[in-house]
């Protein structure tokens, strides 16, 4: 069956490596996955005071996420954790209490960095939230995309072994989503 995947990128930077990795994975994805990037940069900072009168962009974001069968997180690391913009999107989607848009959706985590540690800290801090959000997160293969700084010519991934790795990851992710679907 066709499965719709929301791709959430944890960086707003125009030339973001995370976004480039996400787009590369969308090109490599097997045909049963319909992947779309859902933008998070328009979501104002979450304030619980607004729960009774949420900004329309919140309502729209929550109902958009609910239409998807799974989520692919592709994120850089800021100060050994996830960027605030990504955490904000997670928080927005998780409310109102008891109506989280994320609950039950299978997901995959890809962390991206120009550094050698490959955003391990962000990858695993994100997984901590995913446990609470009741999102089955694929355990293997893991994806730590390090030393990414010289792996793109424009938007094109120039590293064959990274490409092969990402191919294996999206193929496994398709199986993971199918296993947890419905
Ligand atoms: C960073 N960067 C970074 N890199 C890393 O590997 N571990 C880290 O803890 C941090 N911390 C950090 C904090 C802040 C505030 C910034 C702006 C950057 C560097 C980061 O990996 C680099 O800027 C990436 O290019 C960001 O990802 P995108 O935007 O290319 O997807």
From TrEMBL:
Transmembrane segments: none annotated. SUPFAM superfamilies: Flavoproteins (SSF52218). Residues 4-147 form the NADPH-dependent FMN reductase-like domain. GO terms for cellular component: cytosol. Pfam families: FMN_red (PF03358). One of its GO terms (molecular function) is oxidoreductase activity. This is ACP phosphodiesterase. It comes from Massilia eurypsychrophila.
């Amino acid at each position: 069956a066709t499965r719709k995947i929301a791709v959430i990128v944890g960086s707003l930077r125009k030339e973001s490596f995370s976004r480039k990795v996400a787009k590369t994975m969308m090109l490599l994805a097997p045909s049963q996955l319909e992947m779309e990037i859902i933008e998070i940069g328009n979501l104002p900072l979450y304030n619980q005071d607004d729960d009774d009168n949420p900004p329309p962009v919140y309502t729209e974001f929550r109902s958009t996420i609910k239409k998807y069968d799974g989520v692919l997180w592709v994120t850089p690391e800021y100060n050994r954790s996830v960027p605030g913009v990504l955490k904000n999107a997670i928080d927005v989607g998780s409310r109102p209490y008891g109506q989280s848009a994320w609950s039950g959706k299978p997901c995959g985590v890809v962390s991206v960095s120009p550094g050698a540690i490959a955003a391990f800290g962000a990858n695993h801090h994100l997984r901590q939230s995913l446990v609470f959000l009741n999102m089955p997160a694929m355990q293997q293969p893991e994806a730590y995309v390090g030393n990414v700084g010289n792996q793109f010519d424009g938007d094109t991934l120039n590293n064959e072994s990274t490409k092969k790795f990402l191919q294996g990851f999206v193929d496994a992710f398709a199986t993971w989503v199918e296993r947890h679907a419905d």
